Amino acid sequence: MKRILLIIFLFGLVTSVHAQKATRTMAVTIDDLPYVKFREGSYVARGQAATAKILNALKKHKVIAVGFVNEHMLESATDREARIDLLRQWVKSGMILGNHTYSHPDFNRLTVEQFQEEITKGEVVTRQLMKSRQPYQLYFRHPMTHTGDTREKKEAIEQFLRARGYKITPHTIENSDFIFNVPYAQALEKGDEALAKRLREEYLNFTIAATEFAEKISPQVFGREIPQLLVIHANDITADALDEMLQRLAARGYKFVSLDKVMADPVYQTKDTMVTRFGPTWLWRWTKSKGMDLDFDDDPDPPKWVMDLYNSR
Ligand SMILES: [Zn+2]
Question: Which structural domains are found in the chain, ordered by start?
Fold first, then answer.
């Protein structure tokens, strides 16, 4: 009898752990493809190493990510084809490529016409590479998520994107990997593995802290936890930490789903009417758009020691 009870107890444990796994969903988006280079060495060699690590981690955790491309990074007199091949690997691995403009400009400094040009110029190679996958939902992400510093600019670009078949890609979790990556690349350059390890660890902890905040604030905005949308970048620290990051997120009960699936949730139909020069999370934009006044003071910032290293670069 005792043994049967033990088996029932163990079975219950296993199923409850399993149930925990299905409680949350998240889509992963990765910006600045093919690769953000902050280290010495050839773009293609560094980019290849990072691409392999990122794609391996995504495949291991069964993540279909959307990667947002800046096609100006493909321009090169010597190795344009090899750079395009980095993107080809994403498509071959089952990932989706999206548009992040041609040269990653700041919309605050551009006219609507100039920004439109950046969008059309930024989709040429990507659309070609994704030909075998048509039809698929086109996604656009504004550089620095600067969506328009006046209502007129914001609405003009929204309309332009809609007419071209694009959906604007929000994000609800942002982990400042572009900040962590700068001292991280420097540490690798100097061969300071102890510092690199410390930065990776801090980066992972920060990602979880940012995730916890999104889990805490979303029920205050929508009455429930929502499917989350993570934004990270194709850089060295993310390449080196992604496997563990996905593992830790899965341990929090996240199942990784497609961007299409997350965007199908009704909360993602909430209109973002916020006009700002900055690039805040959509949880903040939706809060303001709904006329709510919530406390975002707990939304974590990267630790001071990391900011100090970043600022002293
Ligand atoms: Zn970007």
Answer: 24-311 (3.20.20.370)
